[in-house]
Each structure stands twice: as structure tokens, then as C-alpha cells.
Amino acid sequence: MASPSDIGPAVSSDSGDGAEVSTAPLLAPSPLTDAERQARLEGAIWHGASLLFRRKWWIMVFCFLIAVAAAAISLQIPNRYAASARLLIPDSSGGGLGALIGDLSPLARGVLGGGGGGDYSRYIAILTSRTVMEDMVDQFDLVQVYDLGEKEHPKQDAVSQLASNVDFTVDIELEFLEISVIDEDPQRAAAMANALTAQLNERNAALATQSARAFREYVETRYQEAEDALDSARVALQQFQERNGVVELETMAQAYVEALATQRAEQATLEIQYEALRSQYGDENPDVAAAAAALQTARRNEETLLQGGDRAVPLSYRSLPSLGSRYAALYQEILIQAQVLEASRPLLEQARFDEARERVAVQVVDEAVPPVRKAEPRRTLIVLVSAFSAFLLVCAFLLALDWFNRNGEALFARLRRTAA
To answer: What pTM, to 2 d.p., does this model score?
Structure first.
């Protein structure tokens, strides 16, 4: 066990009641065992506790004075009242553009929007916007209410203070939005909360109308483009028909093939008759000559038909594939543009309706009313916190002062030796 000479000279301190408490300087190095460290720690704790117990009345008086001062100061803080309005987003599932485009393909619904419930973040963005806040400052003359007339930027300062006095709470479980406003005047607090609700509906209606107008203009443009394209396709088909003498290609092609088949069958019959008469009567026979003339006529008719010279079926055999391809392309374009028009017409009518109809962002469940009880300041809490803080500070001060009294001389001596 270390001897007193190893630890250093003892320093006595007055315990306050005439007794002396001997403690070794904390700055002297000393190898201690675990038991000695535990005993020293317990001794320090009991010493500090006994010191605070001896100074209990002084501590109590100090804390009491601080509590009285805190109560007096809190009484100078004006009362502030909180007024709240509870809002719901209206159900938009029953009709409108969302119901109309519900029958479209998933891709179209993704592009045009499904029309489901709204997003609270949109409304909070509107409520916290600079435009809304500045309108509130002007409407309630908050520059004068907050006494900011002498500031360099009174309106901006009023907007900042208003933002600190307004709270927007979204309840995800119950799905409602609550607007709370704190003000020294309960009537003004309720009026400001209700004014924010009105501002939300007004701004949202303006933005929604702007979006609906943009969508209506887009649908109108697309509808007009489809109508013009359909007219152009019809004109192109008409010019194709006039140029090629085609009314309905499919029917005419069928008639052409049938006429060609009939002509060739007739030609084959005449050839058989001609060869039979020729072999029987010779080339000089009048009946053979008549059969030869009839065969030549049949061959000329077939050639005329192949070249497209027939007035009833003005088609040529070689041009039939290209005419069919061109005719099919023109007819397909007419069908496509007609379907685009058919799909666009109800969208256009609904877009016009959505642009014209009145829009409500939120439904008011509970309108803000002037509160009866104050929200701030919480004077009891202020007094309790002040008294507890004073207790901690005075205890720390007494313990620090006692430590300095016991170890100050050794501390200065160590500093002098280090400096030397």
C-alpha cells in the first residue's frame, strides 16, 4: 500500500461544522489498486453529497428565486392561441376525366392520368408558397400586427414570422390535413386558418384550370390533326380512284379475274373448234375461215383485257399488285384516322367540361373557430424547467468551487514547477 509520502502532502479543508476533512491532492501521481480507486470514488461521492446537503438551504433559496424570476418573466409573455381547421380531399373517383379514360389502355391511362385521389404534398406546397404567404400578410396587415414596420424588409420578415406561426399536419392513417395558426388574437387566429383554406381552394382551382386548359388545347390540336389527315386520305383515295378508274378495288379485281377466266375459256373452246373444222375441211373452207376469225377476235379481246383496255374493268394484269398495295395503304390510313377521331371526340368533350367546371381542392370537416384556451406560453413548464436548470447549475458551481478549494494550491504549485 502506498505511503503518504508517495502521495504527497495532505491538504485539509474545512467541512463547515469545525471538522477537517483530509484529502490527498488529485494532481499527485499514485499507483492505486482497484479497491483504493473504488474507495476514493465512494469517498468523493459522499463528500459531494454531504457538501450539497450542508448547502441545501442556500440551494433551495437560489432555485426559488430563479423560479420566481421565471414566473415573473413568463407573465410578461403575451398569451398565444392556436386555431385549427381539419380538411379532407374530395373523392374524385365518381366521373370526370379519370372515369372516362378508365376504359382506355394502360399506356393511355399512364399518359393521361388515372384521376385518383389527390396528394397532400401538392396542397402543402400551395399553402407554403410565397404567393399565398404574401397574400395572407397583406390581407391581415401582419406587418403592423407583428410590429415590423421599422425593419429593412418588413414584408419578408412578416412572411417568415407567419411561416413559424403556421403548422400543417397530415394524418396518414385517417387521411386528413390540419391547418393550425397561432396568434395573440384568437379571432384573428381562426380567421387566418379559414383564410388559408380559402386560399388553398382558390389556388388549386387556378392551377387545375390551367392544367385542364392545356390538356383541352392538346386534345383539340390532336383532333384537328386527325380530322385534316382523314380529309387528306379521302382526297388521296378519290384521286387514286379517278386516275386508275377504280371504285372498289377488291370487287373490281374479282370481276377482272372472272372476266379473264371467261375469256380464256372461250378462247380455248374456239381453238378446239377451229382445229376440228380445219382437220376435217381444210383451210379454204368458209366455216374454217369463220372459226379462225372468231379465234382471232377472242385472242384480241384477251390481250385488251390483259392491257387494261376494257371499259367495264379498266385494270391491267401487271398493274394489279401495285394498285392493290396503294389502294390498301390509302384505305388503311382512312381507317386509322377515323379511329383516332372516334377516340378523341369524347376526350375533347370531357376536357372542355373539366376546364369549365368548378374545382374544390379540399372539403372542410371542421372550420377553425376562435380558441378559448391559450396554447402558449406554458408558464408552469417554464418555471419548472428554470428551477431545475438553476438546481443543476448551482450544484455544479458548489462542487467545482469545493474542488478548487481543496486542490487549488497543489494545482498552482504544479503549474509553477512546470513553468520553471
So the answer is: 0.50
